[in-house]
Design the sequence.
């Protein structure tokens, strides 16, 4: 059956269409933190951040279904839901973020953020990190340094090293480390200006999620923002992964204590329904509206807004932000304890319920343990727990469950992870 | 109430966020060909092509709701629905169109089409018409000549005049008119090559919908395709408006008798649900997959595919293609009869249930009657019939109902249109 599906898939979508795991999963059902395959096997989902409030949450499904049965239309007519939802959403963030542009995907949201920043500043040049991915359109793909050996993938882009206390530039610490990174940004700005691109701004994920969730030296984000503004640029935060409570704050930028000029939202916004947004300062939004006829056929339709609103409602009703903080603390303690047992775990980092466990062959050399990471992800899947890996070398375990994750779920995860670390260790010993 | 909504909307989305009609409509419900406002007033929808099989079609709503309650996840696990849907979709088109890339919006579909064409040919240059719009991302917006006085809006793009038998270049006809337009394409290719962009292909809507649905001289599309291929370019058809039976053929390219190398789909694909696609030849798709890590988080999720599949099922079960042909013939006769009564109607054109009535101040000078068009669109709305206008001067009435449109619906439309033409005429006489 799975073989037949795989054959049909290769023909229709191409052999290279991204697929998870050495033996792909055939998933047929989702509920809360659980996914079920075609054989009825149950998997604890510790990967998917899109179904943020839980797979197929009945309240979100009901809101979506009711609105789909009532009206689904573009936003060129007046409608209550887009306004009710938008106002509720913006009330959760700094009052300087006043204007909302609804679209359908994180790529579209980052596209729009770039278009806004470039129109508003009249400049083209953008700075990103050297292990970033922000989406799949031409302009956004120019920033996909993660898949291009750290190099920009198009014009008007410069990449800088991301700060990382676990692997600090030249072994620097604290303010010295910050200064080294700020200096890289200064150099990139000068380069963009001397090339004629000018400097429009910086686009970062506030948690540096695709970079592997590094701990940055305290003060870096604020000083970086100040530097960007000093040079006339805008600060764009990609909150596609960081937003909606993931970090233990409602927004990633609140977690790092810096309000951006423009931010993009996506993935968990509709718990799986294609809805995304770009949110910005009023002066930027009004300037863009006056200059550009921006319209998005599906963006802001009542069904998308009803789904988005239900997600926010569930978030509050189930006190999920509090749950993130509680479970994150519990899970962090357990992961640190595993790290004491297994030197393979070089670093345990987390922002709320987004954990990165960096695997290294040796705690001193810190050589990325990419093979071990692959092994563990696949072994855990075999044992019914779904996680993934990130980072330039794919050696960082990515643990990012729906945020309705419970203590019992955390126990199962830790137990399974411990067992798979043991399996890897045993295999290594047999090999030597 | 509407005033309050408008005030909130201006604050949240900006005063310049696109809105229909001089007095915006507050729509709360949709059913079949009908829309209802907050006061319970019913409008015949003769504008919206997205809810193609009818607003809130129960079968589509049920498919969407059932799947949303069962599983909604990305396409990196195996799933039946994406394959069942994709195979059913591709079975409706030429067998050379073998590979499917699912995304969420027409903009994303055209983005991907451009990325594919550029990767596959290794060239950057693209030719579009001088009154085109294909979406809102940076690369696609470079082709938005409709909002930029006929000029490209970014690098690597050349615009050519679109063929139009009603307003032919230099008064030419038949093959001479074709030759003049092919010559423009040759010149554009030479220009792209001499600038160093090279020639990647042509991106056209096969019906030239945003251009105002001009009648093109028979043979033009095939000769244009041959010329493009001769120069090593690819033919990309934007079927976002042309597809799904609108033209009386399942696909716009079948309607014009030319199979593209790459095509994009969007708007009516999920009857309002955000689903879109790029479809291409196998060699192009496999080349792109091998070169580029393309992934779209929401693209091809089971809910989107269930909605898309239900649309195809309804299409067949209700024999909607046949309905398009029947009603189009009926409506065309009625519109031609109105055109005999009112010299304001300079030209009646249609492709299936997409009608363009070009309004002119004088049948000889053919001066665009933009004011009359504005008046009629708003007057018809007041009488409960929703249409819109298109074209560089906004002087072409755009008539494009859900394709479940009946004879009775067509009668109401024609009656209302006749009355509003009369109102305009009376107002003009009073004015003189």
Sequence:
């Amino acid at each position: 059956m799975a073989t037949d599906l795989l054959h049909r898939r290769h023909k229709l979508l191409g052999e290279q269409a991204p697929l998870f795991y050495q033996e792909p999963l055939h998933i047929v059902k989702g509920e809360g933190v659980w996914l079920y395959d075609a054989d009825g096997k149950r998997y604890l989902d510790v990967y998917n951040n899109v179904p943020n409030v839980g797979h197929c949450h009945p309240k979100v499904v009901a809101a979506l279904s009711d609105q789909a049965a009532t009206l689904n239309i573009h936003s060129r007519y007046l409608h209550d839901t887009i306004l009710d939802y938008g106002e509720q959403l913006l009330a959760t963030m700094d009052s300087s973020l006043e204007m909302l542009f609804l679209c359908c995907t994180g790529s579209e949201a980052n596209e729009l953020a770039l278009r806004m920043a470039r129109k508003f500043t009249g400049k083209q040049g953008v700075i990103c990190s050297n292990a970033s991915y922000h989406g799949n359109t031409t302009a956004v793909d120019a920033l996909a340094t993660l898949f291009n050996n750290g190099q920009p993938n198009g014009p008007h882009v410069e990449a800088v090293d991301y700060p990382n206390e676990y692997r600090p530039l030249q072994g620097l610490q604290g303010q010295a480390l910050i200064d080294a990174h700020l200096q890289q940004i200064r150099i990139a700005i000068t380069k963009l200006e001397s090339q004629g691109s000018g400097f429009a701004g910086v686009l970062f994920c506030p948690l540096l999620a695709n970079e592997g969730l590094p701990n940055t030296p305290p003060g870096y984000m604020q000083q970086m923002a100040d530097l960007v503004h000093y040079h006339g640029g805008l600060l764009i935060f990609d909150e596609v992964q960081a937003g909606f409570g993931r970090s233990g704050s409602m927004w990633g930028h609140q977690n790092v204590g810096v309000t951006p000029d423009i931010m993009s939202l996506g993935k968990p916004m509709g718990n799986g329904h294609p809805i995304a947004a770009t949110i910005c300062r009023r002066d930027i939004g009004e300037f863009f509206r006056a200059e550009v006829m921006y319209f998005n056929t599906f963006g802001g339709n009542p069904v998308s807004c009803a789904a988005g609103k239900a997600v926010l409602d569930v978030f509050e009703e189930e006190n999920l932000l509090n749950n993130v903080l509680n479970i994150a603390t519990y899970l962090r303690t357990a992961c640190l304890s595993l790290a004491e047992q297994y030197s393979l775990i070089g670093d345990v980092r987390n922002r709320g319920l987004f954990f990165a466990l960096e695997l290294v062959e040796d705690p001193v050399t810190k050589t990325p343990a990419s093979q071990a990471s692959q092994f563990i992800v696949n072994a855990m899947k075999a044992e019914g727990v779904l996680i993934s890996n990130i980072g330039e070398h794919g050696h960082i375990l990515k643990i990012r469950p729906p945020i309705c994750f419970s203590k019992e779920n955390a126990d199962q995860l830790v137990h399974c992870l411990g067992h798979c670390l043991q399996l890897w260790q045993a295999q290594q010993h047999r090999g030597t």
